[in-house]
Amino acid sequence: MYAAIMKHILSSESRQDPYSVATIYSYLYHKEHEVNRLIIALECVFVTVSALTRQCSISQKLNTRGGVLIDCQDEIFEHHRAESRH
After folding, report:
1. CA-CA distance, 83 to 76, in Å (whole number)?
2. Could you tell me if 76 and 52 are in contact, meaning their C-beta atoms sit under 8 angstroms apart?
3. Do residues 20 and 14 lie in contact, with contact meaning Cβ atoms separated by under 8 Å?
4. Nearest C-alpha neighbor of 52 from the set 81, 17, 27, 29
5. What is the DSSP letter of 69?
6. Which alpha helices (DSSP H) does 1-86 contain, by range?
7. Could you tell me which residues come within 8 angstroms of residue 61 by beta carbon, excluding any fewer than 6 positions away?
């Protein structure tokens, strides 16, 4: 709720006086939130990849055949393709 109120106030103030400091403050406020959303997205990707890698290393230990480990790179890419379809 706070973010929505700030966004409304900053947008209206910067529209009323486009040559004031409020315009710069509004721009920086929006950029800060954009950066935060990007960080959250990257953290989600990192957690997903690390979880799949951990899961893959466990399955590699279980799927050892004749001393050759099964590569899980295709499994990770297929998981990402399936997630992007949803």
Report:
1. 11
2. yes
3. yes
4. 81
5. P
6. 2-16, 21-62, 73-85
7. none
Is-above-0.85 flag for pTM?
A: no
* Each residue's pLDDT expressed in tens, for the chain with a length of 86 residues: 888 898 899 989 889 988 989 899 999 999 998 998 898 888 887 777 777 676 666 555 555 554 444 455 566 666 667 776 66
Q: Rounded distance, CA 6 to CA 49, Å?
A: 35
Q: Which two tokens stand for residue 76?
A: 């990770």
Q: Which residues contact 59 (CB under 8 A, 6 or more apart)?
A: 70, 72, 75
Residue 18 one-letter amino acid: P
- The sign of the CA dihedral 81, 82, 83, 86 is positive
Which two tokens mark 6?
């700030």
46, two tokens: 């990192």
d(C-alpha 84, C-alpha 7), whole Å: 30
